[in-house]
């Protein structure tokens, strides 16, 4: 898509923005390679929207700098606007107008003549499954339809970089999957996507890299796999046939794995962390050794499962970490 | 969507198809950027669509002027000119100005609440002439001002107003009023962006509008006022606007009053337009 392929889609250095005493974004360094989906993951109030608004030229940073395809978001805002599209967190189309009117309006503002704008609107509505709702006011759309028209409005002109601010917040699983599919097509066509989300699963599914932010700071960055292994562990869950053997099993597992073992509410179940040095295969190896030890000790295992740490666990581990650092500081 | 039959099943059965979605991306060369005029007119079209979908918003350009006209004609007519019919010839142009200038306030409030909505974020990320969203909204409001003027003039004609300037005079008067109101509206767009709540915008607007319209030649000849008050009335742009329109409607070509009106409109536009855009860009 982009002509200057050497430039990353987004590059920020010490980007900062405060509202009064709130440091909404507090020194963020990011590099987003072109042509990928980049996930920005953080809880409520982390500063995701503020960061996206600065990158989309809507808010002026009070510190640091940000470039989009090599163009400064403040000094060359107009050039940046020519290449990006924003689907905001809240209603980003005019709710009083119909679907068609919204898309024709944007088509006209992007320089299409009326017939071309009409044609493009019709095709977009068709592709987004909104053809039947084309002449209804957007305020009467369902949540899923609304999110789709929001995204359709962002690609009336194909952007080189698309910001999606919490595109699936409040959607049911089916609508969420539709949005995911749309995002996959968009990125396959060469548009870079920056997606903010509170759902770890979503970032894991879509993004090739993820930045985890909290209190306006990046607390971790990398591929989903790197993030998981940085926490350094998976877990094994074991179900025994006989609850009476649980104390023995606990002792065996603790010795074999070198970690403490958690006893579940279910009297036949135990969970233990498995330290895998770097990759998942180590985790599996340790786990199978531990299972063998159980067998040797005469403990009957009915069922077991091996889990990679979920991004939820990663996130909790990372944010806990910062809370402790703050407490220590 | 060819297989679904009702709107309600559409979201449930929609499956994003990679090929049809992909197709909309391959839409050829992007068109050239629209001109400032073109994007402003497009936003004006948006304002017309909003009137179409939310016609209630025409309430304040129809009912309000009717009440104003009836109220002041019968309240002051007998006392000030002996008969309402005589007074109407003097008052109606003034009431026309007062009503329309007061309606400009709703414009400010309307633009302000509009800007707070998420859709303005989208407009502000478009590579277009920056003021066009506001200019377009105000172009749409010029239609509202024209409707209000028409309502008042028709009511006036029914009540016995007889403009000696004829159709051309009336047309000229309304045109001048609408142009002035366009410029005047930028005061409210600025206030709308500056003040936090809709209520404070209304409050400050009233503070400007009441003295601005009453302390003028709308109701009485300024020669009846004490000299310190005359001083204010003479520099008040509303007075020049009223004098121009009174002249035009009654077939008198008052070129110096018209010139003053246009100059004050240009000055208001320059000052408050600039301030508005500054605030708009910083938001
Ligand atoms: N316009 C504003 N004025 C004052 N404070 C603001 C403003 N916008 C954001 N904030 C504050 O900045 C912080 C970051 O907000 P932001 O909206 O960027 O978070 P977020 O990560 O998008 O959260 P959410 O998931 O809830 O959307 C919050 O503490 C918020 O209260
Ligand atoms: Mg947000």
Please provide a written account of the structure.
The complex is a heterodimer of chains A (329) and B (283). Chain A is an alpha/beta fold and 329 residues long. Helix content of chain A is 39%, strand content 26%. Chain A has helices at residues 48-55, 77-81, 99-109, 114-127, 143-154, 173-188, 200-206, 224-231, 246-257, 280-296, 311-328; strands spanning 10-19, 22-32, 37-41, 63-68, 71-72, 84-87, 161-165, 192-197, 209-214, 217-222, 233-240, 261-263, 269-275, 301-307. In chain A, strand 1 (10-19) and strand 2 form a beta hairpin. In chain A, helix 8 packs across helix 11 (311-328) and helix 9 crosses helix 10 (280-296). Chain A starts with 9 loop residues before the first strand and ends with a helix. Chain B is mainly alpha-helical and 283 residues long. Chain B has twelve helices and no strands. Chain B has helices at residues 10-13, 18-25, 36-53, 59-81, 84-116, 118-124, 132-159, 166-194, 198-214, 227-235, 237-249, 255-282. Chain B starts with 9 loop residues before the first helix and ends with a helix. Chains A and B meet through strand 6, helix 3, helix 4, helix 5 and helix 6 of A and helix 1, helix 2, helix 3 and helix 6 of B. Bound molecules: adenosine-5'-triphosphate (ATP) and magnesium ion. Residues 48-49, 89, 165-166 of chain A line the site of magnesium ion (MG).
Helix content of chain A: 25-40%
Q: CATH homologous superfamily name of the largest domain in chain A?
A: P-loop containing nucleotide triphosphate hydrolases
By DSSP (H or I, 4+ residues per run), the number of helices of chain A equals: 11
- Structural class designation of chain B: mainly alpha
**CATH class categorisation of the largest domain in chain A:** Alpha Beta
**Percentage of β-strand residues of chain B:** under 5%
Ions, cofactors and other ligands present here are: adenosine-5'-triphosphate, magnesium ion
CATH fold descriptor of the largest domain in chain A: Rossmann fold
Low-confidence stretches of chain B: 1-11
**Strand count, sense and closure of the main sheet of chain B?**
none
Q: Low-confidence parts of chain A, pLDDT < 50 over ≥5 residues?
A: none
DSSP E strands of chain A, number: 14
Mean pLDDT level of chain B: 85
Distance between the termini of chain A: 46 Å
Biggest sheet: strand arrangement of chain A: 6-7-8-3-9-10
Cα radius of gyration of chain A in angstroms? 24 Å
The helix fraction of chain B, in percent, is over 70%
The oligomeric state is heterodimer
CATH architecture of the largest domain in chain A: 3-Layer(aba) Sandwich
Q: C-alpha Rg of chain B, in Å?
A: 23 Å
């Amino acid at each position: 898509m982009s002509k200057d392929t050497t430039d990353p889609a987004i590059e920020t250095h010490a980007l900062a923005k405060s509202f009064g005493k709130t440091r909404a974004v507090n020194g963020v360094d990011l590099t987003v390679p072109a042509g990928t989906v980049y996930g920005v993951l953080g809880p409520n109030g982390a500063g995701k929207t503020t960061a996206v608004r600065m990158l989309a030229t809507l808010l002026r940073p009070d510190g640091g700098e940000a470039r989009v395809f090599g163009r400064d978001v403040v000094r060359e805002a107009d050039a940046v606007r020519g290449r990006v599209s924003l689907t905001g967190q809240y209603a980003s189309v005019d709710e009083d107008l119909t679907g068609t009117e919204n898309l024709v309006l944007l088509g006209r503002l992007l320089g299409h003549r009326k017939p071309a704008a009409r044609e493009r609107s019709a095709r977009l509505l068709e592709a987004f499954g909104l053809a039947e709702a084309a002449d209804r006011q957007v305020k009467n759309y369902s949540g899923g339809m609304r999110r789709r028209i929001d995204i359709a409005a962002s690609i009336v002109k194909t952007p080189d970089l698309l910001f999606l601010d919490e595109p699936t917040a409040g959607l049911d699983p089916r609508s969420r999957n539709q949005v995911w599919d749309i995002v996959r097509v968009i990125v396959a066509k060469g548009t870079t996507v920056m997606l903010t989300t509170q759902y770890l699963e979503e970032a894991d599914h879509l993004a090739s890299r993820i930045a985890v932010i909290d209190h306006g700071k990046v607390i971790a960055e990398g591929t989903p796999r790197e993030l998981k292994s940085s926490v350094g562990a998976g877990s094994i869950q074991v179900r025994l046939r006989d609850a009476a053997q649980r104390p023995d099993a606990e002792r065996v597992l603790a010795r074999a794995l070198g970690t403490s073992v958690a006893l579940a509410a279910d009297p036949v179940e135990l969970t233990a962390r498995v330290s895998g040095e770097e990759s998942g295969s180590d985790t599996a190896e340790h786990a199978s050794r531990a299972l063998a030890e159980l067998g040797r000790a005469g403990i009957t295992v009915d069922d077991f499962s091996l889990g990679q740490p979920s991004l939820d666990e990663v996130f909790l581990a990372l944010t806990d970490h910062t809370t402790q650092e703050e407490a220590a500081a | 969507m060819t297989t679904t039959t009702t709107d309600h099943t559409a979201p449930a059965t929609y499956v994003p198809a990679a090929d049809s979605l992909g197709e909309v991306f391959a839409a050829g060369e992007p068109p050239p950027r629209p001109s400032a005029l073109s994007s402003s007119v497009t936003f004006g079209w948006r304002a017309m669509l909003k009137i179409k979908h939310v016609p209630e918003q025409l309430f304040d350009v129809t009912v309000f002027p009717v009440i104003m006209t009836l109220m002041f004609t019968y309240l002051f007519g007998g006392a000030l000119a002996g008969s309402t019919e005589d007074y109407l010839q003097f008052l109606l142009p003034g009431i026309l100005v007062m009503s329309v200038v007061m309606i400009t306030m709703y414009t400010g409030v309307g633009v302000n609440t509009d800007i707070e909505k998420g859709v303005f974020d989208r407009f502000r990320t478009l590579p277009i002439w920056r003021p066009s969203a506001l200019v377009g909204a105000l172009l749409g409001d010029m239609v509202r001002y024209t409707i209000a003027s028409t309502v008042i003039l028709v009511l006036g004609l029914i009540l016995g107003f007889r403009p000696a300037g004829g159709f051309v005079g009336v047309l000229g008067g309304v045109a001048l009023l609408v142009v002035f109101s366009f410029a005047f509206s930028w005061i409210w767009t600025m206030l709308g962006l500056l003040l936090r709540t809709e209520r404070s915008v209304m409050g400050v607007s009233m503070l400007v509008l009441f003295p601005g319209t009453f302390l003028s030649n709308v109701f009485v000849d300024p020669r009846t006022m004490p000299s310190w008050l005359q001083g204010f009335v003479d520099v008040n742009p509303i007075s020049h606007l009223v004098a121009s329109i009174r002249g035009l409607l009654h077939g008198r070509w008052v070129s110096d009053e018209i010139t003053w009106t246009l100059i004050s409109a240009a000055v208001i536009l320059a000052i408050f337009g600039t301030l508005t855009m500054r605030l708009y860009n910083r938001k």
